[in-house]
Amino acid sequence: MGLHTTLIRMLQAGQDRARLARKGPVGDFYRAGGNELLHVLPVTTDDVVIDAGGFEGDWAAAMLVKFGCRVELFEPIPAFAQACRTRFASNRRVEVHEAALGGSERTAHFAIDSVASSEFKGRGGGTAEARVLDVADVVDRVRAAHRDVACLKLNIEGGEYEVLERLAGCGALASCRSVLVQFHAQPEGWEDRLHRARSELGIAHRCAWRFPMVWELWERGPR
To answer: What percentage of the chain exceeds 70 in pLDDT?
Structure first.
């Protein structure tokens, strides 16, 4: 084992220990399994999942390895979308869309802040203009070719409220077999919208597990 590899493993081990020692929901999440939980889902090889907030494609790659499913990946920041296109260039089971998902089709400006890039706030890392697609149209397209969306994964820095409101309003939320969502403390009024989002999810889904404002998984109940 080379020195470089040894140093990387030591650094990773230190990061793992720090995560496990954290208090509150973040520490609880990692002590319960951390990112491994994000791939324990009701998905099969023939299914399609939607990855909203694809960033560099790590979640999509893990889903391919575990399930071999199809992935519709949405990433509005051009550099990150290009990284995903390059990463999955030889894999026909992943379709990368340089766009965000929202409640309506429009153009928006996103503040670039690595994994925390958002339409609502940033830290001076520049901005990018991007398309926002109506999530209802995307879900309808998936449903036309498949029975449902096996998993709707949302890590979109505050945009999750708009997406869930749109799907609940048009009756398409129940067509998502599972919803894996990270809620955020933005934009303004997020507290009330969070309460409503969970209420809407609770109509057809049950909360399988929750680490507040970290990640939570909702699975559709018997129909």
So the answer is: 89
